[in-house]
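[job 0412] stage=complex_fold ligand=fe (iii) ion status=START
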Amino acid sequence: MPSFRTPLACAGLAAAMMLASSPLALANGELNLYSSRHYDTDERLYSDFEEATGIKINRIEGNADELIARMQAEGANSPADVLLTVDTSRLERAKDAGVLQPIESDVLAARLPDYVRDDSNQWYGFSQRARIIFYDKNDVAEPPMSYEDLADPKYAGQICIRSSSNVYTQTITAALVEHLGEEEARDWATAVVGNFARDPQGGDTDQLRGIVSGECDIAMSNTYYFARAIRKPVKGVSDDLDMIGWVFPNQDSYGAHMNLSGGGVAAHAPNKDNAVLFLEYLASDQAQKYFSAGNDEYPAAPGVGISPSVAQLGFFKPDDVDASAIAANIPAAQKILNEAGWK
Ligand code: FE
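[job 0412] stage=complex_fold status=DONE, emitting structure tokens
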């Protein structure tokens, strides 16, 4: 039976038990957090850390690319200690821009599986989202069972998906480059463009709305947008959940594509110790539960329970390909999307 998680390794279990039984060490001072995570439920993450450690978090929120540019402009004088953002391609962009630094943390190494960590320890994934296929149950008798199936001409005029400027589109294309090679990934992208129901537009929730409105028969979205519509009213989706079916793709091969939300320690962090402590806190059982309960994500640390809305989507086999390998394919993915005419 496919499962969302591989079993805990022994080392990971020992570290998990240590973390669960000993509260974070008290440390004084502050932490300057640059964050582009746009979920208000993250408040709990921050206030619990402040209470446990006595470290005050000063938050600067903004668009990821603006935050990265700001850190670059601030250079060695940057007050940033930690950058949090979403998606592997953005984490990699931050690394390439030189705004992160490698760190040593036995806790992070033990808590987080290798495949959600940057090879050079500059960024860490703290939560995951599966990017899966949704479809209109009334109109689609045989939904695509894999990402590759989306290229099948029988789905001509049916697919709604986000634009090539969107990081989720770039990252899943980069994952296909990893699995299929550049040549096949290019053929795939070209064929998927041929199956578009409309020019790419809007966010993930808009793709789900497209199914409800009848404009799209098949759509791609991250799981948390759908789980959110289960948990609370989302306009244009929640009232019609019954008509939407979903497929965790590639369960017979490499598994469903996972994208990451994560972060790293800033290159010139004035409070580096606090920054490392904060990242270690984000990998703790308590913080990992918030990612699931608050924003319907999958915890990156093995063995942490998921919230009821997320559990409703069911168990599945995730693609555990190394995020660093995907990140390295992003330039190739962007080129492929351009060549395919993916707007
Ligand atoms: Fe999102």
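The radius of gyration is 20 Å.
[job 0412] exit 0
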